[in-house]
């Protein structure tokens, strides 16, 4: 006998969250790509986060995690194209969220980003539906690769905003003085 498990001796408790794989309200109403991904296929996301993402080198962890995730889904090129678009989206999102903190984020930006994120998930779903790499690229080309160019634009725009001294002050994170600085004053 290879496995000798007595299920009566295990003290593991399961609840409905154990098998609750989709958090649809958070998928639909999340503030970004990263949080939307976490709410979708949560058991796989948990496994990817703990066994791939956290064990990877910081500089490539998102790319590597999405590469493993696309391979886990299958070997169709559409999966790889869709999943390997996500690191670009999360890089732009990180830059955007670091430039405009939650308390300094204009309402128009929140609405625009929500629209872009929702349309972006739809855009990436094409790879899952078409599966073929050339068909996916042809469709994305007919849509002018808008998601890829938008994310590149956001990365460049946030870099320019951060380097501009006038906007840097307006959207800068509030720095609270440390205890040592307070004692000195």
TrEMBL record:
The chain crosses the membrane at residues 63-86, 143-161. It is a multi-pass membrane protein. GO terms for biological process: lipid modification; phosphatidylinositol biosynthetic process. It is found in: Membrane. One of its GO terms (molecular function) is lysophospholipid acyltransferase activity. Its main location: membrane. It comes from the Eukaryota. Pfam families: MBOAT. One of its GO terms (cellular component) is mitochondria-associated endoplasmic reticulum membrane contact site. Keywords: Acyltransferase, Membrane, Transferase, Transmembrane, Transmembrane helix. Pathway: Phospholipid metabolism; Lipid metabolism; phospholipid metabolism. InterPro entries: LPLAT_7/PORCN-like, MBOAT_fam. Belongs to the membrane-bound acyltransferase family. PANTHER family: LYSOPHOSPHOLIPID ACYLTRANSFERASE 7, PORCUPINE. This is Lysophospholipid acyltransferase 7. The lineage of its organism: Eukaryota, Metazoa, Ecdysozoa, Nematoda, Chromadorea.
